[in-house]
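User: NAD dependent epimerase/dehydratase, Patellaria atrata CBS 101060:
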Amino acid sequence: MPAEHVLVTGGLGFVGSAILHALLNAHPSFKTTVLDIKPTPLGYKLPSGVNYIQADLRSKSDALRAIRGTKPTVIIHTAGYSPTGSARYSQTERAQVFSINVKGTENILHAAREEGVKAFVYTSTCCVISDDLDHDFPNMKETLPTGRATTVYGQSKTIAEHLVLSVNYPELATCALRPSVIFGPGDTQLIPTLHACIEKGETPFVVGDGFNLTDFTYVDNVSHAHVLALENLLGPKSAAGEAFFITNGQPIPFRDFCLAVWTEFGHIPSYEIRIPKTLAWFAGSILDWVTWMTGKEVTLSAGSVKDAYGVRYASIEKARKVLGYSPIVGLQEGIGISCKDYYERLNGK
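Assistant: Predicted structure for NAD dependent epimerase/dehydratase:
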């Protein structure tokens, strides 16, 4: 494969930096550039030979300036914003979410078409389907219709994914990857949130029956899939115009994943308290009001209850057949690596 110039947006972030390193390992001859809204952290050094450009993709002129200045042949667009905590289940950050996830994607796509970029891989999310929190989604396939997400994040990523796939032409091949919940070294959301449950004394509580299957995806599997998608769009192009679910291929009861994480930190709940779904939702709704009135964040909310008992896992058969994707790190191994990383971060190592 001839040398290409790949631009990774959001390349300083958790997922973006993993994609960058996977790309460097797979194609060391490629020229690579990181684009991010953040300046490089003090003392941080990008890998040798990697260029950096700071730009705000919410600005159409900024996006065009960045692409004209770097002249990439391929873009991996992973920059985005996901609300956390109670904001995930409300519309309080709608303007910010849409400005980054939708307008930012629209602007980078416009610049890509203007400047002759030939391949565009978009980091979408399973949330374009599974963030319809009122329904279960067992064994999701790409044939399911989008547009029913109830969260602002799922809604914004649905629109952005549609924008990406709708501009797939011979001159610009595009595809979208839909990872499930991502974890790994550097994770700032999933593992830290579950670890915090230990100190809060929340680990004994089980919402529903605890057997609801959920997908989790180790970050190296996500980055591996992006490299495969890039190679496909530069080669056979059988992925052009398509979306693909990317997971570990190991759906696990949500409760079992939590227990596996807590065990890595030496904690095993000595008892369990099972809370019926209806009662948990009612309690979460009350605590939503407490959060709104006091401004203090609580773990439980009506939305988080639905997340905790929902059935959400996807088939990766399409990714296997078209991209040749197969997870390279198993779930248990990934949990061990991630928890060790977070433990070392907590202890300043």
